[in-house]
Design goal:
The chain is built from 13 helices and 12 strands. It is α/β, with parallel strands linked by helices. The protein folds into 2 domains: 125 residues, Enolase-like, N-terminal domain (Enolase-like, domain 1), CATH 3.30.390; 198 residues, TIM Barrel, CATH 3.20.20. The strands form 2 sheets. It has an 8-stranded parallel sheet. The longest helix has 16 residues. It is globular. The structure holds magnesium ion. Magnesium ion binds next to loops. The site of magnesium ion (MG) has 6 residues, from loops.
Length: 336
């Protein structure tokens, strides 16, 4: 198949600054792609890199788009190098979109169908604000229907975070699940302390809710440490930064990781190869956002719906981070 190829870079400001152990994040930048095949079917795609998380940089993605001709083929798309995982995702998902197999993509359908896809059967995880703000802002998310929450740790001093944690578990309703995401920011001793605290509270029946897992307690280079921790404690561990791309995911699996894998489709790489890997190894996955727009989110949710197991909530609870997405996207592609 041959496609007319167009692209357009975008910049969007978060309504609220996102703070993690990697620092502050105020503006999301990415690229929207449009592929039109010979039958005039249109497929939309999005490249939303996070270079500090392990993908290519925005500049590398832009350079790749700029050097492509105006007409590209399936060969072009399926031979994008592994060094450009966000590009692999963006182009391949634009192809899938255009193929019509998601029930969108025919001309004129886009506006109505893809902004609010019906993924309501999937449980969603909502991202709580960092620090003490979580204590009085969870309710808004609860009212929006979230029952699984994620809270960032490893941002402040551990003693202070453990104090807030103590309040948080007694503030959140008992039916909620809580995920603690360290973004690789804990030392081995601190990770032990968090895991011990969770195990201990549970053993003493002092845990009113379920701690679903601790996410990426140690830095990417400390895989063996996390493997050891996962065997020493009951509280589950999920790898996130360690498995940012398919290549890393396969390497961790081969080195014995049988805990949870957080998959960010937007930067993991080729959707078709991801599908194959998940189906072949039946890994325990949590699908998660890269703060993409509705375009990449739609493609990512297709994958999540296909590949999620164990009824784990997906980490796409981010609608409140962007304002007026629909209007914004419409104005963007109106002049594409
Ligand atoms: Mg994470």
């Amino acid at each position: 198949m041959r496609y007319q190829f167009k692209f357009r870079p975008y910049r969007r400001r978060f309504v609220r600054r996102l703070t993690t152990n990697h620092g502050n994040w105020d503006i999301r930048e990415g690229i929207i792609l449009c592929l039109t095949d010979e039958t005039l079917r249109v497929g939309w795609g999005e490249i939303a890199p996070i270079s500090w998380f392990g993908s290519e940089t925005l500049e590398q993605a832009l350079d790749f788009c700029r050097q492509l001709p105006q007409v590209i083929t399936d060969d072009t798309i399926f031979s994008i190098p592994d060094e450009l995982p966000a590009c692999q995702f963006g182009f391949e998902s634009a192809c899938e979109w255009g193929s019509g197999k998601w029930g969108v993509g025919s001309k004129g359908d886009e506006e109505n169908n893809f902004i609010t896809p019906n993924f309501s059967l999937l449980p969603y995880s909502g991202l709580l604000p960092t620090g003490e703000a979580a204590l009085n802002q969870w309710e808004t998310l609860w009212q929006q229907g979230y029952r699984t929450f994620k809270w960032k740790i490893g941002v402040d001093a551990i003693a202070h975070e453990l104090e807030i944690f103590e309040s948080l578990i007694h503030t959140l309703p008992a039916s909620t699940k809580l995920r603690l995401d360290a973004n690789g920011g804990l030392t081995y001793e601190e990770a032990n302390l968090w895991l011990w605290t969770c195990d201990n509270l549970k053993a003493n029946r002092e845990l009113p809710l379920e701690i679903e897992f601790i996410e990426q307690p140690l830095a990417v280079g400390q895989f063996q440490g996390m493997l050891e921790l996962s065997m020493s404690y009951q509280t589950a561990i999920a790898l996130d930064e360690s498995v940012a791309t398919l290549r890393q995911l396969a390497a961790c699996y081969q080195q014995g990781w049988r805990g949870i894998f957080v998959i960010k489709p937007g930067i993991v790489g080729s959707p078709s190869r991801l599908r194959k890997f998940c189906q072949q190894h039946q890994i325990d996955t949590v699908f998660s956002s890269v703060f993409e727009t509705a375009i990449a989110r739609f493609a990512a949710l297709q994958l999540a719906a296909e590949l999620s197991r164990n009824n784990r909530a997906i980490g796409f609870g981010i609608d409140h981070f962007f304002e007026q997405e629909k209007t914004w996207l419409q104005s963007l592609w109106n002049d594409l």
